[in-house]
Write a structure and sequence with these properties.
Elements (H helix, E strand, L loop, with lengths): L14 H23 L3 H25 L7 H27 L6 H26 L7 H33 L3 E5 L5 E4 L1 H7 L8 H6 L6 H14 L3 E8 L5 E12 L5 E10 L1 H103 L5 H13 L1 H32 L8 E3 L1 H11 L1 H4 L3 E6 L6 E3 L1 H17 L5 E10 L2 E8 L29 H11 L3 E7 L3 E9 L2
Parallel strand pairs: 7-9
Antiparallel strand pairs: 1-2, 1-5, 3-4, 4-5, 6-8, 9-10, 10-12, 11-12
Length: about 575
């Protein structure tokens, strides 16, 4: 493409000078093309060097012509100064371009074009007129001729540029179009015409848009409108109906054409077929969706397995804890049963012997009273009477007659209490008995209190508030175990000495019992954990964390409920509800 198109209007009338001018223009066009097409830096510098060398040669030729005697010396000196300044300017730019390739820029090319055109059409025109002794032409007229020729040359260059642009545009497999400020297409390349199937002479905005998918027409119009009103680039994707060839996806970039005065001259557009890309994206989305679904299903399966594993581990942990506690309680039950059995036998004959001893003592006391009566009928100085009275006085018989019955009664009462404890131990020891049967809850509480009396009596005063409940069906030994755990925990929650209230009652079809202590209470942050297996707030070695867990499991197995109320620093109350069957 030529930056300056040579024609006869550029001739000054001196053959050698015109030939040299044509050569300069040729070098300048080559330099412009090299910069525009991105030639290697070395090639561009070679063209600049060629321009400098040839210009020097040309200037020498011109200066030789101007040395004729008839030529005006002042004009010569002025002309020569212009030559020298031009050479200095281009040499400086060339030196700058050695280290900075961008120095050979559009600004330098604009300078070269302007200078050469001014040099040919004005300075050298004046020189040629003077050398040819032609009639003088006024400076204004010469400048006007210069402007006309330049405009003509630029128009020709523009036409050539436009022709080449259209040729290039027609070769590209893309939509390329230009509209005027009324949005009427004034240029559409061959690919556009083939794609839309519209002859160039029949293209209008209406039939242009008719080929666009109805769902996308508004999007396209909005993009064109925004580019026209806001003077900004737009990029859109839309579908294009191509008749029998189907629907195509287009990616289009719209650019406003702005005049030098800032007014809109129309739009330019460049569109590419991205149907294959869209198809690939669609397939990729399907594959991604499928893969995502597969991953989700796998993750869900893994999550389910993880949750099942956690649940199984938790169940295993609970079962293990319950087994440990059950074994512990069973061992305790066996020990209690063994102790009760071993104590019960000697306790039986102790109790029996005490009854017999009571009868024997009464008989002895009767004999002593008979001896007293006999002594009263004998002389006072009778040796036997004196010995009897001496023995009576030494043994303090009167005191013994009153104290011995009391001692026997106390011993029998102690034996009775021991017998009751043994019976409670035997009742409590039936841990492995799982059959449901009528159970007296309040009697069970009393039995359990006897068992844990040593644990409680130094820590709290027990206050019983019974409602007189009738027996109900349950596994009594398990309920005793719940009562035991609650009572022991209540006692251990009291630091010094306090109170433990034990209450019973009935609500509709449920019976309930509660254990309330005046201990330190349960903090809010751990209330949700107290029924977890192995959770304990007691020091190491003081608790296993299984008591409440096992108690909760027993209550659940009975379809019962546990209600907890606790205030830190004031105490805790556990109420257990059980079905009244």
């Amino acid at each position: 493409m030529s930056i300056i198109t040579w024609n006869d209007q550029l001739n000054v009338g001196i053959a050698t000078v015109d030939q040299q001018h044509q050569k300069l223009v040729e070098i300048l066009n080559q330099l412009d093309e090299a910069v525009a097409l991105g030639y290697k830096h070395k090639k561009i510098l070679q063209l600049v060097d060629e321009l400098i060398d040839y210009t020097r040669y040309h200037f020498q030729e011109e200066e030789g012509l101007m040395l004729q005697p008839a030529y005006d010396a002042a004009m010569y000196q002025k002309h020569k100064s212009e030559h020298d300044e031009f050479i200095r300017k281009v040499v400086r730019e060339r030196e700058a371009a050695i280290d900075n390739p961008d120095a050979v820029s559009n600004e330098l090319l604009d300078f070269l074009v302007a200078w050469i055109m001014d040099h040919i059409l004005y300075s050298d025109k004046q020189m040629a007129l003077a050398l040819n002794r032609a009639p003088n032409v006024k400076d204004d007229e010469l400048r006007k001729q210069q402007a006309d020729i330049m405009h003509s040359n630029l128009y020709a260059a523009l036409r050539e540029s436009e022709k080449r642009f259209k040729e290039l545009a027609d070769q590209l497999p893309a939509l390329i179009w230009i509209t005027n400020n009324q949005h009427v297409p004034i240029f559409c390349n061959r690919f556009w015409v083939e794609t839309f199937g519209l002859p160039k002479q029949k293209i209008t905005m209406d039939n242009w848009h008719s080929a666009i998918h109805p769902a996308d027409i508004e999007l396209v119009k909005q993009a064109y409108q925004k580019a026209s009103t806001e003077y900004c680039e737009q990029q859109i994707e839309y579908r294009l109906n191509r008749g029998e060839r189907g629907t195509f996806w287009m990616l289009e970039k719209i650019v406003p054409r702005i005049r030098a005065n800032g007014h809109i001259a129309g739009l330019m557009g460049f569109g590419m077929d991205i149907s294959l890309q869209k198809q690939a994206e669609s397939q990729l989305e399907i594959l991604v969706a499928q893969r995502t679904q597969q991953l989700w299903e796998v993750n869900q399966h893994l999550e389910d397995e993880k949750n099942q594993q956690i649940a199984l581990n938790q169940q295993l942990k609970e079962v293990q804890g319950h087994l440990v506690q059950s074994e512990k309680m069973a061992s305790l039950g066996q020990l209690a049963a063994g102790v009760a059995h071993e104590i019960n036998n000697p306790l039986g004959y102790i109790y029996s012997n005490l009854n017999t001893l009571k009868e024997y003592i009464q008989d002895l006391l009767n004999i002593v009273e008979s001896g007293q009566r006999l002594a009263d009928h004998l002389p006072a100085d009778d040796p036997a009477v004196l010995e009897f009275k001496q023995l009576q006085k030494a043994a303090d018989l009167d005191f013994m007659k009153g104290d011995i019955p009391e001692l026997v009664e106390e011993a029998m009462e102690g034996a009775t209490r021991a017998k009751k404890i043994v019976q409670d131990l035997r009742d409590f020891s039936r841990i492995d008995k799982q059959d449901k049967s009528p159970f007296d809850l309040e009697a069970g509480i009393d039995s359990t209190l006897n068992i844990v009396n040593n644990e409680i009596k130094y820590k709290a005063e027990v206050v019983k508030e019974y409602a007189g409940l009738k027996p109900f069906v349950c596994v009594g030994s398990q309920i005793n175990q719940v009562i035991l755990n609650l009572l022991v925990n209540a006692a251990q929650a009291i630091d010094e000495f306090g109170k433990i209230h034990i209450r019973t009652g009935m609500e509709e079809d449920r019976v309930w019992f509660e254990v309330e202590d005046s201990g330190k209470g349960i903090p809010e942050e751990i209330r949700g954990k107290i029924f977890d297996p192995f959770f304990t707030t007691k020091p190491v070695g003081k608790g296993t964390g299984l008591g409440l867990s096992l108690s909760y499991k027993i209550i659940q197995d009975h379809q019962g409920e546990v209600d907890l109320q606790s205030t830190v620093g004031k105490g805790t109350k556990f109420r257990v509800y059980l079905p009244n069957i």
